[in-house]
């Protein structure tokens, strides 16, 4: 709901009352979706959850095209609040369901398995971010997307991917999970790629909105979206690949 509040600004809603309504409506939407599920069931193969994750995969592929062709691509959505709201829904709602299904992974067998998976995705993204920052600081010369986020470099990008691959290999060795290392590595690297895309996509929307931070809810760090932008892409993409594409259940 806090993310929806901040997305209202990215969508072009300047009035505080409008953004409050967006946050409330987002909360109601998620609550209604939860009530629509069968009792005590949060598996990925429920149509509502499955559709949300597939929609996320499609949205982030579309977002990749928007980022690659920015600023020309902005002419498609720049003057449409409706489109920007749809983009917000496709960012926030699948992220919510991605967290739910990962947290409920084999819950009937072991209550903590899902916690490990959810923590893994977070560590993966944070590790990729840290690796990208360090490699970018040490070797960064060539800009990754200067029209969207001038601070990011190709050296940092590949450094982040390298870091995520190392985390995946170590996690696969020590966590004793019933997933083939190749599948885990593939899902992890693609999720790391998605995390970069999530960051770039939010930067693109902020640039169009003429703001530096998505909000001021976290003093000294900006807004909620500034902290979870990478996760909003990585979590649903990882869940979709692992549970629906590779069907690791």
From TrEMBL:
Domain of life: Bacteria
UniProt key word Lipid biosynthesis: yes
Alphabetized GO MF terms: phosphatidate cytidylyltransferase activity
Transmembrane segments: 20-40, 52-70, 82-102, 114-135, 156-174, 180-198
Secretion signal, residue range per the UniProt entry: none
Family annotation (Pfam families): CTP_transf_1
EC number assigned by the record: 2.7.7.41
Cellular compartments annotated: Cell membrane
A GO CC annotation given for this chain: plasma membrane
Recorded catalytic activity of this chain's protein: a 1,2-diacyl-sn-glycero-3-phosphate + CTP + H(+) = a CDP-1,2-diacyl-sn-glycerol + diphosphate
Gene Ontology process terms (BP): CDP-diacylglycerol biosynthetic process
Pathway participation: Phospholipid metabolism; CDP-diacylglycerol biosynthesis; CDP-diacylglycerol from sn-glycerol 3-phosphate: step 3/3; Lipid metabolism
Membrane topology: Multi-pass membrane protein
Keywords: Cell membrane, Lipid biosynthesis, Lipid metabolism, Membrane, Nucleotidyltransferase, Phospholipid biosynthesis, Phospholipid metabolism, Transferase, Transmembrane, Transmembrane helix
Entries under NCBIfam families matching the protein: PRK11624.1
PANTHER family: PHOSPHATIDATE CYTIDYLYLTRANSFERASE
Family classification: Belongs to the CDS family.
Name this protein carries in UniProt: Phosphatidate cytidylyltransferase
Organism: Buttiauxella agrestis ATCC 33320
Gene: cdsA
């Amino acid at each position: 709901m806090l993310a929806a509040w901040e997305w209202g600004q990215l969508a072009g809603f300047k009035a505080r009352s409008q953004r409050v309504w967006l946050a409330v409506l987002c909360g109601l939407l998620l609550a209604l979706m939860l009530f629509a599920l069968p009792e005590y069931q949060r598996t990925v193969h429920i149509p509502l959850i499955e559709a949300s994750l597939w929609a996320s995969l499609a949205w982030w592929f579309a977002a990749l095209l928007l980022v690659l062709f920015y600023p020309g691509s902005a002419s498609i959505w720049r003057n449409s609040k409706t489109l920007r709201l749809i983009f917000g829904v496709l960012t926030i709602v699948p992220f919510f369901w991605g967290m739910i299904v990962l947290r409920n992974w084999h819950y009937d067998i072991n209550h903590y398995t899902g916690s490990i998976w959810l923590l893994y995705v977070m560590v993966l993204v944070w590790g990729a971010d840290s690796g990208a920052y360090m490699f970018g600081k040490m070797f960064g010369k060539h800009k990754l997307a200067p029209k969207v986020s001038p601070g990011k470099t190709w050296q940092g990008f590949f450094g982040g991917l390298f870091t995520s691959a190392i985390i995946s290999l170590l996690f696969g060795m020590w966590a004793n999970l019933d997933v083939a290392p190749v599948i885990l590595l593939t899902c992890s690297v693609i999720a790391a790629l998605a995390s970069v895309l999530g960051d770039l996509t939010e930067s693109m929307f902020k640039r169009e909105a003429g703001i530096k931070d998505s909000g001021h809810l976290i003093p000294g760090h900006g807004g909620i979206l500034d902290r979870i932008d990478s996760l909003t892409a990585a979590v649903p993409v990882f869940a979709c690949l692992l549970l629906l594409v590779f069907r690791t259940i």
